[in-house]
Design brief:
TIM Barrel; globular; 13 helices; AKR; oxidoreductase; 340 residues; 14% strand; two-stranded antiparallel sheet; NAD(P)_OxRdtase_dom_sf; alpha/beta
C-alpha cells in the first residue's frame, strides 16, 4: 500500500459537530507511558499529520501530568483555526507513575478545564471529554457542569470516554454529546454491546482509542516483554505478557495474510477494519492511533484507503473472542465493568 501524501477525507462529530479528518492523532505517547520521546521527531510528526489532513488531536490533562498539553500548545497556536483540540478531565495522577484515581466532582471539573486552557494556550477547548466516569457522582451533575463550560464559552463540544450505552443516553439528555471515546479494535470489541448502538441511535461520533491494540496489532512485539523499556506501561498490561502474549501473537496470522494480499502492513489492515465499522454500525468513526514517528503516521493514514473484502472481514471476525487477557490490570473504571 503506497504511503503517498494524499489528504484524508473528512466526517462530522455528531449532528452539528465539527468537521474533522476521518483519522485523528492520539498524542498521549508523546509525553507518557511508551518510553522516551524524541521531541523534535514528535513535532515533525505533528506537522506531517496536519499536512495530511489530520485535524483532530487528542490529549488529556493526565498525560505527563499536564506536560502533553503544554508540548502541543505551540503546534496548536500555529494552526489554531484549522484543528480540533480534544482534551479530557477525570483521571487524577498522583505522581509520574500510572497510579491514579477518578474524579467527576463539579469543582474539580471547573478547575481542570481552566488548567487545561492555560496549558494549551487557548481561549476555548473544542472537544472536552469526561475521561473516566465516577459512579459515586451523579452523571447529570457532572455533565451539567460541562454544559456550564459550554455556556461560558470555555468549551465548544462535549464528549465522554469509557461509558455504557445507558450512560451515553443519560448524558445526552442533559446536553448534546458529540463524541464518545473508548477502546475499539480487532482485539477489543466490548463497545459493540451497548455504547456503539446507542451512539448510532443518537447520531454521536465514535472515536476509538488504541485502534492498534497499543501496538500489538502492528505485529511489532515478540511474545515476551523482555525488550520493553522500564518506562513502557505495556509491560504491566495482561495482553502483553507471558502466555497471553504468545496466544495473542498467534492471532496476528490472518492479519498478516490479508496485509500481504494488499501489499500493506498488519497495522494498516487493523485500522482499515476499524474504519469499516462506520459502515457496519452506521455512525461516524474517527480512530486516533498514536505515533511519534512520521513514517508510522503516513502508514496509518494510508490505511484509510484500504477496502477489505467480505472474505477478509470474515477471517478477522472471530479474533476478539480469542484474545487472552484483559485490556488493563484493573478494569474497574471501564464501561464493561459497569455493565457486568
Amino acid at each position: 500500500m503506497s504511503n503517498h501524501d494524499e489528504r484524508i477525507t473528512t466526517t462530522h462529530l455528531a449532528n452539528g459537530g465539527p468537521e474533522v479528518g476521518v483519522q485523528g492523532l492520539g498524542c498521549m505517547g508523546i509525553s507518557d507511558f511508551y518510553g522516551d520521546t524524541d521531541e523534535a521527531a514528535a513535532r515533525e510528526t505533528l506537522e506531517a499529520a496536519f499536512e495530511a489532513g489530520v485535524t483532530l488531536y487528542d490529549t488529556a490533562d493526565m498525560y505527563g501530568r499536564g506536560a502533553n498539553e503544554e508540548f502541543l500548545a505551540p503546534f496548536f497556536a500555529a494552526h489554531r483555526d484549522e484543528v480540533t483540540i480534544a482534551t479530557k478531565y477525570g483521571v487524577v495522577r498522583f505522581d509520574d507513575t500510572p497510579n491514579s484515581t477518578v474524579s467527576n466532582d463539579p469543582d474539580y471539573i471547573r478547575q481542570a478545564a481552566d488548567a487545561s486552557l492555560r496549558r494549551l494556550g487557548v481561549d476555548v477547548i473544542d472537544l472536552y471529554y469526561m475521561h473516566r466516569r465516577d459512579p459515586q457522582v451523579p452523571l447529570a451533575e457532572s455533565v451539567g457542569v460541562m454544559a456550564e463550560l459550554v455556556q461560558q464559552g470555555k468549551v465548544r463540544y462535549l464528549g465522554l470516554s469509557e461509558v455504557t450505552g445507558a450512560e451515553l443516553r443519560e448524558a445526552n439528555a442533559v446536553h448534546p454529546i458529540h463524541a464518545v471515546q473508548s477502546e475499539w479494535s480487532l482485539f477489543s470489541r466490548d463497545v459493540e454491546y451497548s455504547v456503539v448502538p446507542a451512539a448510532a441511535e443518537l447520531g454521536i461520533a465514535f472515536v476509538p482509542y488504541s485502534p492498534l491494540g497499543r501496538g500489538f496489532l502492528a505485529g511489532t512485539f515478540a511474545d515476551s516483554n523482555a525488550a520493553m523499556p522500564a518506562n513502557d506501561v505495556r509491560q504491566y498490561l495482561p495482553r502483553f505478557v507471558g502466555d497471553n502474549a504468545k496466544t495473542n501473537t498467534a492471532l496476528l496470522e490472518p492479519i498478516r495474510t490479508i496485509a500481504a494480499h494488499h501489499t500493506a502492513t498488519p497495522a494498516q489492515i487493523a485500522l482499515a477494519w476499524v474504519h469499516h465499522q462506520a459502515q457496519v454500525h452506521g455512525l461516524p468513526v474517527v480512530p486516533i492511533p498514536g505515533t511519534r514517528k512520521r513514517s508510522r503516521l503516513l502508514e496509518n493514514i494510508a490505511a484509510t484507503r484500504i477496502t477489505l473484502t467480505d472474505e477478509e472481514l470474515a477471517l478477522l471476525e472471530p479474533l476478539a473472542e480469542q484474545v487472552a487477557g484483559e485490556r488493563y490490570p484493573d478494569m474497574s473504571s471501564t464501561a464493561v465493568a459497569r455493565e457486568q
